[in-house]
Design a protein that fits this description.
single chain, 433 residues, Rossmann fold, 2 domains, 15 helices
Length: 433
C-alpha cells in the first residue's frame, strides 16, 4: 500500500465510523426490554409507546439505525430531512435546506402536533443533526415566513456571526432554543450528530430540545449593534419588545429533567478513528485540532508551514508523521469556478509543496458533498503537480478562479464518496514522509 493509499484508507475508516448506522450501534444496546445508552438504562416496558422523531441532514439514516436496534418496539415516528426516503414505520417529511420555505413551517407544525400529543407514559427518541435550523421553523406570531426570511438575509448580509444569528432566530421561533422540547410531557432521549465546532449543544440544529442561555435583551442588542433594529419588520420588534417587558416567555434556561442528550457523533471522534487507523498502518499520528476554521487557502498554508518545519528541523515532531485536523473552513469567492472549501484547501497546499515527494495532503467533507460539486474533497502528492504541469494547468490561475474541482478532475485527484447521510464537518490530513 502506497502512502497515498494509506491516507485514503485513514479517511475512509474515519468516515465509516461517522455513518449513522455505526454511530447508533456503538452507543445503543437493547436487550431484555432495557435500552442502554452510554451507561444510562431505560426500561422500555414502562412506557406505553416508543416513538422516533428527528430533524437534520443525518436524521433519516440515524432513525433507520435506531429502528433497527429497537425492532418492533418502536411504535411510530416522524423525521424531517432535506430529501425523501422510505422508512418502515416512520414517516419522512421532505423539507427545504438551506433556505426556509413553507415546507419548513409545515414540518415544524407536524412535529409540534405529534410531540404535544404524547402523554407522560410515552418515550421518544429524537435524532438531531446539522441542517435542522432550516428544515423546521415556526415563527412566533405575528411574524411571517417572509419576514423571517428577510431578517435572516439582512443578518447574513451584515456579516453577523452564526452564534449571534442563532440567538436572534431562537427568540423569534416556537421550536428553537429548547422550545420544541417543552411542548411534550413524554420522556425524551436526544441523539446528537454534531456539525458544530466545539460540539456546543446550544448551537447544534439551534437546540430545539436543549436550553438557551441567551435572552431577548441579547436579541435586541444584536439587532441594534448591526443597525437592523429600525429596519426590522414591526412584527419582529413587537415580539422582542414583549420579551423585554416580560410579556412573552423566554427560551428555557435550564435542561429539562425529562430529556437526556447524548452526543453520538462528532469531528473529534472521527479524528480519533483516523489516528487509530493510521497507527495501525505504521504511521505515527498526531491530532492537531478539531476546531479548524478560517479562509481555506490560508489555513492550508498554515498547515503546510507546520509540515515544512517538521520536514526540515524535526520540530515539534520527527518525520514520518501524520497530522490530523478537523473543523470547517470557508471560501471567499472571487472567481466563477467550481469546487468547495476542501478542494480549495488541497489546491492551496499543493501550490505550496508542488513537486516535493515528502508530502501528501488530503481534505474532505464527511457529508460527501464539498461546496457546489459532487466530490467530497481531494488528495494530492508530488505526482499531482507533475500531472498538472504536463497538462499545462497553472495552479495560480485555478486558485484565482476558485476552480479547484476542474483542476482535480483533470489530475484525477478528486475523492468521490457520494452523499453519505452524515455530517461531522471535515477531515484534513498531512503526511510528512
Amino acid at each position: 500500500m502506497t502512502n497515498r493509499e494509506k491516507m485514503m484508507s485513514v479517511f475512509m475508516d474515519a468516515l465509516g465510523s461517522a455513518l449513522p448506522g455505526n454511530l447508533v450501534r456503538d452507543v445503543l444496546k437493547y436487550e431484555g426490554g432495557v435500552l442502554a445508552i452510554e451507561g444510562k438504562n431505560y426500561r422500555l416496558d414502562e412506557y406505553r409507546g416508543v416513538h422516533v422523531f428527528g430533524s437534520g441532514k443525518a436524521s433519516v439514516e440515524t432513525a433507520r439505525a435506531v429502528k433497527a436496534v429497537l425492532g418492533g418496539r418502536a411504535t411510530d415516528g416522524l423525521v424531517v430531512s432535506n430529501y425523501g426516503a422510505a422508512l418502515e414505520g416512520i414517516e419522512v417529511f421532505e423539507s427545504s435546506h438551506p433556505v426556509l420555505t413553507e415546507k419548513s413551517i409545515r414540518a415544524a407544525e407536524i412535529l409540534l402536533q405529534r410531540m404535544s400529543a404524547l402523554s407522560a407514559d410515552d418515550l421518544y427518541i429524537y435524532v438531531l443533526s446539522g441542517g435542522s435550523s432550516a428544515l423546521i421553523e415556526k415563527p412566533v406570531p405575528p411574524i411571517t415566513l417572509a419576514e423571517m426570511q428577510g431578517l435572516t438575509k439582512g443578518l447574513l448580509a451584515n456579516g453577523v456571526p452564526i452564534e449571534e444569528l442563532n440567538i436572534v432566530r431562537k427568540h423569534l421561533s416556537l421550536v428553537k432554543g429548547g422550545r420544541l422540547g417543552r411542548i411534550s410531557r413524554a420522556r425524551g432521549i436526544v441523539l446528537v450528530v454534531s456539525d458544530v465546532i466545539g460540539d456546543d449543544l446550544e448551537a447544534i440544529g439551534s437546540a430545539p430540545l436543549y436550553f438557551d442561555r441567551s435572552s431577548f435583551a441579547d436579541t435586541h442588542a444584536i439587532l441594534k449593534k448591526y443597525g437592523l433594529w429600525e429596519q426590522a419588520p414591526e412584527s419582529v420588534r413587537t415580539v422582542v419588545k414583549k420579551g423585554l417587558a416580560g410579556e412573552m416567555e423566554e427560551t428555557p434556561k435550564d435542561p429539562s429533567p425529562l430529556i437526556d442528550h447524548f452526543l453520538i457523533g462528532s469531528n473529534l471522534k472521527i479524528l480519533r478513528k483516523g489516528k487509530e487507523r493510521a497507527e495501525a498502518l505504521g504511521i505515527p499520528t498526531r491530532i492537531m485540532s478539531s476546531r479548524l476554521r478560517g479562509e481555506a487557502r490560508e489555513v492550508a498554508r498554515a498547515i503546510m508551514a507546520m509540515g515544512e518545519e517538521i520536514a526540515t528541523t524535526g520540530q515539534p515532531f520527527a518525520a514520518p508523521v501524520c497530522l490530523l485536523f478537523g473543523g470547517e473552513t470557508t471560501v471567499t469567492l472571487k472567481g466563477d469556478g467550481m469546487g468547495g472549501r476542501n478542494q480549495e484547501m488541497v489546491l492551496a497546499a499543493l501550490n505550496e509543496f508542488r513537486d516535493n515527494p515528502r508530502f501528501i495532503f488530503l481534505s474532505a467533507g464527511t457529508d460527501g458533498i464539498d461546496g457546489h460539486s459532487d466530490a467530497a474533497g481531494a488528495v494530492v502528492d508530488h505526482t499531482s503537480y507533475e500531472k498538472a504541469k504536463k497538462a499545462g494547468l497553472r495552479l495560480d490561475d485555478y486558485l484565482a478562479r476558485n476552480d479547484s474541482y476542474r483542476f482535480f478532475r483533470e489530475t484525477g485527484d478528486l475523492i468521490m464518496t457520494g452523499p453519505t447521510g452524515t455530517n461531522v464537518m471535515d477531515m484534513t490530513a498531512l503526511l510528512i514522509a
